[in-house]
């Protein structure tokens, strides 16, 4: 069933373009986003005053990326909470709260219990799920399925990008219903989304070999740091989680702006640091801040691997390695920037001779609390 690929994970990363294309399919009509599953829910989307996203692990990082899009496009405040934390506090939620759960399996016990808890508290619930008919969508008022196809490797990859695509569709759908975006502005974002599969394919085609080589050189590395800003921040967290999970290497992701508030003390000569560089076209300010972060850590001996858009020359004199992603709108970048990180984690685990599909101590679906 691996279709000639050495592992399910390598097959599933190769399916990231398709996972997004299939998730978009049938939900875009002439530049407008219309999710058939959400027909009849306009009143709900008009009535809510906030959204709480609940999920665990990689799905929670997808939620953090989604927060930027929902707030920017649909103008609804969003909190992202780990399901197991949400449930054991006394959260302020009620009928004006939409609780959006995200789960590949639809069976994660922590997330399921949080959905039930939210319902008991009177919140409305919507599930983003990859498994038809799973328990979490059955326990929710509405569901938007991701169509990533079955994910077998324990580490989530194609489901992660499909979750972000579904959240973006949801954000644009709600933006239309609430009138927070013009039809033209929505159509522009739709175009950007539809271009993502081809752009990811380009990264897979042009960067895979280099990333595998890089991972081989780094097989003895004991710790890797990941930095990002804005939507690059949750991608840094995702890059670190994948590395811990399948390579058993200590890894941490930070918001780049947080560095000087503590973590920069970790930088010593030779420390590998991945830095996700935002496009200079979207925000020269954000871009220049990340470039100066690279300069600061380089001055302290860090070995910097930058993930930057094609043509961004500012990173060349500062970074040790530059992995390129195609040009895209700012909110689209995380869908591209994560691909080299998935390839890297897989490359490193492979270089260490580990089973990338079945990492130690982990199960694909965590059905206990
Ligand atoms: C990481 C990973 C886990 C899952 C998490 C939630 O690669 O796979 O962090 O994302 O256990 O699982 P689901 O999405 O099935 O609820």
UniProtKB/TrEMBL annotation:
Q: Indicate where this protein is primarily found.
A: cytoplasm
Task: Give its E.C. classification number.
Answer: 2.6.1.16
Is the keyword Oxidoreductase assigned to this protein? no
CC terms in the record's Gene Ontology section: cytosol
Name-wise, this protein is: Glutamine--fructose-6-phosphate aminotransferase [isomerizing]
Q: Describe the task this protein carries out.
A: Catalyzes the first step in hexosamine metabolism, converting fructose-6P into glucosamine-6P using glutamine as a nitrogen source.
- What gene is this protein a product of? glmS
Q: Which reaction does it catalyse?
A: D-fructose 6-phosphate + L-glutamine = D-glucosamine 6-phosphate + L-glutamate
> What organism is this sequence from?
Microbacterium halimionae
A Gene Ontology biological process term = UDP-N-acetylglucosamine metabolic process
Superkingdom of the source species = Bacteria
Identify the segment of the full-length protein shown.
Answer: 249 to 617 of 617
Q: Which UniProt keywords apply?
A: Aminotransferase, Cytoplasm, Glutamine amidotransferase, Repeat, Transferase
* Record flagged with keyword Repeat: yes
Q: Where is the SIS domain?
A: 41-180, 214-359
Main EC class the enzyme belongs to: transferase
State the compartments where it is located.
Cytoplasm
């Amino acid at each position: 069933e691996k279709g000639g690929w050495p592992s399910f994970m390598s097959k599933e990363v190769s399916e990231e373009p398709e996972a997004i294309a299939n998730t978009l399919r049938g939900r875009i009509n002439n530049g407008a986003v219309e999710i058939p599953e959400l027909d009849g829910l306009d009143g709900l989307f008009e009535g809510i005053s906030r959204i709480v996203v609940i999920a665990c692990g990689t799905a929670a990082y997808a939620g953090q990326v989604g927060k930027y899009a929902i707030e920017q496009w649909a103008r609804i405040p969003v909190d992202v909470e780990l399901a197991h934390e949400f449930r054991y506090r006394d959260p302020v939620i009620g009928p004006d709260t939409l609780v959006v759960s995200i789960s590949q399996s639809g069976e994660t016990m922590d997330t399921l219990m949080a959905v039930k808890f939210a319902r008991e508290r009177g919140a409305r619930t919507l599930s983003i799920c990859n498994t038809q008919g799973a328990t979490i969508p059955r326990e929710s008022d509405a569901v938007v399925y991701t169509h990533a196809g079955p994910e077998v490797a324990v580490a989530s990859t194609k489901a992660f990008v499909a979750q972000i695509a579904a959240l973006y569709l949801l954000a644009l759908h709600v933006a239309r219903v609430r009138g927070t975006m013009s039809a033209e502005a929505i159509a522009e974002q739709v175009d950007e989304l539809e271009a993502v599969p081809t752009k990811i394919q380009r990264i897979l085609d042009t960067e895979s070999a280099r990333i595998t080589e890089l991972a081989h050189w780094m097989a003895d590395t004991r710790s890797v740091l990941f930095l990002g800003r804005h939507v690059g921040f949750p991608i840094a967290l995702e890059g670190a989680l994948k590395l811990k999970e399948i390579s058993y290497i200590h890894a941490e992701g930070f918001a780049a702006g947080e560095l000087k508030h503590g973590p920069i003390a970790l930088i010593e000569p030779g420390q590998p640091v991945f830095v996700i560089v935002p496009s200079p076209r979207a925000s020269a300010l954000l871009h220049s801040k990340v470039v100066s972060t690279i300069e600061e850590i380089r001055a302290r001996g860090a070995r910097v691997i930058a993930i930057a858009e094609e043509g961004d020359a500012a990173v060349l004199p500062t970074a040790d390695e530059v992995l390129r992603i195609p040009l895209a709108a700012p909110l689209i970048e995380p869908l591209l920037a994560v691909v080299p990180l998935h390839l890297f984690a897989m490359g490193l685990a492979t270089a260490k001779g580990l089973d990338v599909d079945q990492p130690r101590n982990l199960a694909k679906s965590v059905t206990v609390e």
